Amino acid sequence: MEKITVIGPGSWGTALSMILSENGHEVRIWGNVPKQIDEINEHHTNKQFLPDVVIPEDIKAHHSLEEALDGVDTVLLAVPTKVIRIVVKQIAEVTKQPLTIIHASKGIEPGTSKRISELITEEMPAELLKDIVVLSGPSHAEEVALRQLTTVTSASENLEAAERVQDLFMNHYFRVYTNPDVIGVELGGALKNIIALGAGAIHGLGYGDNAKAALMTRGLVEMTRLGCAMGAKKETFTGLTGMGDLIVTCTSIHSRNWRAGNMLGQGQSLDDVLESMGMVVEGVRTAEAAHILAKQLGIDMPITNAIYSVLFEGVTPKDATAALMGRVKKHEMEDVEI
Questions:
Q1: What's the rounded Cα separation, in Å, for the pair 252 and 302?
Q2: For 150, 189, 315, 316, which has the most beta carbons within 10 A of its beta carbon?
Q3: Does 96 lie in the same domain as 83?
Q4: Active-site residue among 3, 82, 114, 192?
Q5: pLDDT band at 338 (very low <50, low <70, confident <90, very high)
Q6: C-alpha span between 244 and 262 (Å, rounded)
Q7: What is the pLDDT of residue 278?
Q8: What residue numbers bound the domain in which 174 lies?
Q9: CATH number of the domain to which 203 belongs
Q10: Per-residue pLDDT tens digits for 31-82
């Protein structure tokens, strides 16, 4: 049995906590909303994020981060990308021993265009950081919390660390593979959210499965193209954290990125969409970061750029779609080459 602190009691952090608890580990949760912490401890529920789920009583939520980290050498981050730096700084201020940090977030930081593992490395003093492991793949928290079959990837530059996380989480309904390609795993999990926004918008515009299949297929080409330019392995994008996560995020009503795109396609403004969601839509910030990266690296990403134009330049989803369909004719296979 290990002691593990989960930072971020949202839907994903809660679902992963439940797996760890079921696997026999001592699980502590920390968050910055006192009412939510009290609800977990007193009622064993988290109704805002997982309304139909009962949380095991042996999972303890903490108001104090210092208490939550006491005697712990493994931390799971399940927070939005925009607060990663803040949270890691808070951890560094109170931890008393080096930590293995597992992160289950999917995004890229706008402005710097840095991946989450890079943000962690920058904000965590080297003497307090043992390993970074990425946990990613096609996984809706709503299904995991109900013990539905799920398969993900544990990625780290240190294979032993990846295998340790594999052992922490793996059970009869949650299967974990390992992968050394941290760059590819992180980028796959982040970039697919952009394409999911587009898939939702396609649905909101009234288009069918043909359009969705085209968007996903060509979107995967863009993801692979940018990922390889940043040092990822091409094969990773045909795996769980690339194609797998893309499929589940572009085809499910559980996907907040798909739901946000659907509302945009129906004519709602971005501000109204984000306000109504009540949860972070990572694809919005990631679209901004990927748009900048594509320009910097000279990578052709027409779908990503079209979605960026809808989000930040006032272009309507209908006009953006028409512009994509009207692009100059090309050979499909030349685009697949990286």
A1: 24
A2: 189
A3: yes
A4: 192
A5: very low
A6: 21
A7: 77
A8: 3-180
A9: 1.10.1040.10
A10: 999 999 999 999 999 999 999 899 999 999 999 999 999 999 999 999 999 9
